[in-house]
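User: Run a structure prediction on this.
Assistant: Running it now.
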Amino acid sequence: MARARTSNDVWWSEKLNSLDRFDGSYPIIPKEPLAERSLPFLIGSRITIKNYNIFLLNHGSSGYKFWFQLNNDNKTGNVYIIDMTSAVHERVIFRLQKFFEVPNNGVVDFPPILIAGQILHNVPSGTGVWTAPDILVQPDMVLVPKPSTSTVVPRPPGDLDGNPHARIICEVAVGQDASRLSQKCISWMQEQYVRDVVSIKILEPRRNVQEPRTGYFFRTMTAKLYHQGMAVQQWDFGNARKNSRDPVGDFTNDPALCRAPNDPNFQISIPISDVFWDPPFPIPPTYIPMIPTNVAGHVFNIDLYLIQRCALRSHTL
């Protein structure tokens, strides 16, 4: 959803849409803008995996997030729009990326830790379906070799361009429902090279009531951290509790709400060493990935209060 469209993208988008009108081989993007309440929105039925991947290559920058629901034949599936670009979605992604940039210690060109979005990977199920996370964190190839030059047997997986596979992934959902978000995060964790997945779910604003001082709408927000070998951690970090009848009162009087930065109850901590996870096989029981000397610190810290404020400031109408 973040990649700029080229003239080739536009040509292919128009070509695929015109082909779909005749034979239904490819999903088709709706001409009119969608409302979030209409999601998930079906845009193709019995689409082959090959044609879906071609479609994804040429519509990945269309402002929508897609979901390929595999049919029982394991060859075709239905395609849905499950989320879309919005100020809230994109700014939360941007802020999350900044947390992961901190250990690079200001290095911009060829940093040891690479942070990007919407880079295609294979879905871990092995079906050949492609997908792209909102945010991915990868090691630089100088520190962890790309799969084609790795001496590890079997060779490690990579992204579709041959770079090291994402080690940390973030998925942000606004229009996308929470159950589908959870399914996608659990799917990512089937790949052992994905060490951590962060999910952020932001519910719709409560239109009839606002914070007294800022005027921001009240919104429920939930974050989860999936970490290999550990139970899922969860934080409810919105400025309102779900289904609260008195959000103003809760916001004013409930000390357990996420109401200030640096609150230890609303911090997500991820070991920086997870980015450099590249073990030999079989994996030694004592294996611990090393953090390069030019990387600052030992953990990524995500302050959920700052994510909350970012989301609230992005939607004030």
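The chain has two domains: 7-84, 87-313.
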